[in-house]
Design goal:
Oligomer: single chain
Number of strands: 14
Strand content: 25-35%
Structural class: alpha/beta
Order of helices and strands: EHEHEHEHEHEHEHHEEEEEEEHH
Distance between the termini: 50 Å
Number of helices: 10
Helix content: 25-40%
């Protein structure tokens, strides 16, 4: 049994708690929150007995093997590295960090302490995405790739009222690209590798946060166009076209469930399973990697996270 401590009490953590209840060989042993009352309420609602407000006390528990971190983005690297130095494996919510240096620090700390760190990016583990990804070599020369993840945030109205929710707070390293567009960036890196040129055209709020934006990734023979937003529902999905066919998804990129594909004019059947809780697939894969001490998988995912962080850094740096 792989025993987790969890950091954070957001909606994404509630979804992960549900996934932990569904995935064999995994359980949550403790919840961490900086607010004791909020932590207790959250733990009670998901059936976890132990609540911590002292991070070091949580890390001192020898019966906890790993941490799932879903705190605000700016805390990811520091909290993850502290935990890895205490001998804990780490799953950290996307983005792992928004600079290459931040992710490299996490990679180095994992290697130095004989543990793994993985960035939670559900798209890459969704069965239908993997089916579509496997079609790429058959599509011929890729001519077009358009990716969109844009939805009206539940916190946007509070932002418009002048409040300062974390997800619209520049000091928390938040915003549309880091929160939503990062799924699209991960897809682009997974399919096409590191781009030669990165350009980001954001729609900025009064506090400087990117409420929405258009990201262009240029490769030697392909331009990937990404649209992201937290202030509008823009019809999320993707379409990748090649000389011989295409695949497309209609809906949230992180769930990747409603898909279609064709090859040489004939429909390709996409019949992979699709669980109601999208997080079960990545959690099961990370469990397997930790239990099997799968260093090759760790290194592959580490390279993926590093490339994405470098693109985020270049994107924000490209804004005039």
């Amino acid at each position: 049994m792989l025993r987790f401590g969890t950091v954070g009490t957001s909606a994404i953590m509630r979804l992960m708690q549900q996934a932990m209840a569904q995935v064999d060989g995994v359980e949550c042993a403790a919840v961490f929150s900086r607010d004791a009352a909020r932590g207790r309420e959250f733990a009670d609602s998901v059936g976890v007995a132990a609540v911590y407000t002292d991070y070091d006390a949580l890390l001192a528990r020898e019966d906890i093997d790993a941490l799932y971190i879903a705190s605000p983005n700016r805390f990811h690297a520091e909290q993850a590295c502290r935990a890895m130095r205490a001998g804990k494996h780490i799953i950290v919510e996307k983005p792992a960090a928004v600079t290459g240096a931040g992710v490299q620090q996490m990679i180095d700390t994992a290697r130095e302490n004989g543990v793994f760190f993985f960035e939670a990016i559900t798209t890459l583990f969704m069965p239908k995405y993997l089916q579509c990804r496997a079609l790429l070599p058959q599509l011929g020369k890729i001519q077009s790739a358009e990716l969109c993840y844009a939805q009206y945030s539940s916190k946007y109205d509070a932002y418009l009222r002048g409040e300062n929710p974390n997800i619209f707070n520049p000091s928390m390293q938040a915003g549309a690209l880091n929160d939503m567009g990062v799924y699209c960036v991960h897809m682009a890196v997974d399919m096409f590798g590191m781009p030669e040129c990165v350009r980001y055209a954001p729609e900025l709020g009064e506090n400087g946060i990117d409420l929405a934006g258009k990201l262009t990734l240029r490769y030697s023979d392909l331009t990937v166009r990404i649209v992201t937003a937290k202030n509008a529902n823009l019809g999320s999905g993707c379409r990748v076209e090649g000389e011989r066919g295409f695949f497309a998804e209609n809906g949230p990129i992180n769930d990747f469930g409603s898909c279609s594909a064709a090859l040489d004019g004939a429909e390709v059947k996409l019949d992979a399973p699709h669980a109601e809780n999208r997080m079960v697939y990545e959690l099961a894969r990370f469990r397997d990697a930790i239990e099997a001490r799968d260093a090759d998988f760790f290194e592959r995912m580490a390279r993926q996270s590093l490339a994405v962080a470098e693109i985020l850094e270049r994107a924000h740096g490209s804004v005039n």
